[in-house]
Amino acid sequence: MMADQINTATHPLIGTIISSDDDAMRCALVLARVAFDAGEVPVGAVIVADNKIIGVGANAPITSLDPTCHAEVVAIRDAAKRLGNYRLNDTTLYVTVEPCSMCAGAIVHSRVGRLVYGTTEPKAGVALSAEQFFEKPFLNRIVLVDGGILADECSSIMTEFFALRRAGKKRLKEQLKTGD
Ligand SMILES: [Zn+2]
Questions:
Q1: 149 FRET partner, CA 20 to 30 A, in 87, 122, 127, 179?
Q2: DSSP secondary-structure letter at 112?
Q3: In which band, very low, low, confident or very high, does the pLDDT at 177 lie, cut at 50, 70 and 90?
């Protein structure tokens, strides 16, 4: 499993020129597929500064034995290291799925200027669905938020993943019943 994890230091998407939100989200989808192939919930993220990718992340809490390894956090760490700066001012973070509360906090603390997500996450998403975190008055930073970029693609890889996982669990139950 570990071999499927991305080495963000040498990832080929670093430096890719981005000319639209769709462009960036397509790259985030490549990283969602990396997570998928590693058996992780397929979420991918990229961070863009001056129209170039400076950070990449694939969701990896299981393979890295680190519950904080969501795609957004991995991409933030990668970008900060690459920039040599703990502040990611004037960057845009693209993520295939609406962020959770942990990632929303990390986005604010890293000073990402703009968040762009693909599909919504009705249960745990806090940009729009379960909560509107970025509108909270206690935040001292404004993060611009846009959602729904390539939403269909971002959502269908999630659907594909959970369908496969359900099928796998069903198969396992049947094997246990028949004693295979
Ligand atoms: Zn998260």
A1: 87
A2: -
A3: confident
Which pLDDT tens digit goes with each residue over 2-31? 444 666 667 999 999 999 999 999 999 999
Instruction: Measure the CA–CA gap between 63 and 74, rounded to whole angstroms.
Output: 13
CA 97 to ligand 1 centroid distance, Å: 9
Q: Tell how far the Cα of 114 is from the centroid of ligand 1, in angstroms.
A: 16
Catalytic pick among 40, 72, 98, 121: 72
Residue 178: which pLDDT band, with cuts at 50, 70 and 90?
confident
Angle made by CA atoms 155, 46, 74, in degrees to the nearest 5: 100
CA 170 to centroid of ligand 1, rounded, Å: 28
72 counts as catalytic? yes
What b/e string do you get for 117-136 counting C-beta neighbours within 10 Å, with b at 16 or more? Answer: bbbbbeeebbbbebeebbee
**Sequence-ordered list of residues with C-beta below 8 angstroms from that of 158, at least 6 positions apart, any chain:** 41, 42, 97, 119
Protein residues within 5 Å, CB atom, of ion ligand 1: 70, 100, 102-103
Mean pLDDT (the chain) is 94
